[in-house]
Amino acid sequence: MQGDEWIKGRYLYFVDNIKVEEGKSPEILLWVTLPMSHRGQSVKIEKIYPEPIELIHDSVNGNEIVLWRETGLENKERVFFYCDFQVLPEKVETKINPRKIVAYQKESTEYKRYIRSEPWLEITPEIIEKATELVDKETNPYFQAKKIFDWVVANMCYEYPDLKERGAKNSFIKLKGDCGEFSVVFAALCRAVGIPARTV
Fold this sequence. Notes:
single chain; alpha+beta; 3-stranded antiparallel sheet; 5 helices
């Protein structure tokens, strides 16, 4: 979607079934990433409710994070938080000439960061074996990633996962997951053959 019309949006979060034990002072801490302007969209934040205790800038990934802290829950069964915003979709076109891709700077901190195994992006022996099989004798990282992408799309089925089963390791075994799981399986397979990748 693209155009010159701003679209209104709201991120809404409910916390319900609040149980307060006698003599205790419970609190809710909630961190939420705000929608951001970037290539493909412009965003205007209109209202954040209730007033957050902090706005955190994630210097590594560039995210803006709201931190809410809610106390005084003794007589409440449900509380809610929201962020109102407007978004203007913008057309994105990327023209890549795969034949002109330059070699990775393999000694760079950024390269090393995005080829390692980490929680939810586990690089298991099975993932290494499959990624190696998929890229076969292809040496161009663009075409390697394309082979991996095509395999993920052709072989994974959409199914919302149990929260305890999220991550590339589990979703690769089952070949099932939601959009987030498709992306972590793709990224882990890429990393397994030295293609730096991260989810967005």
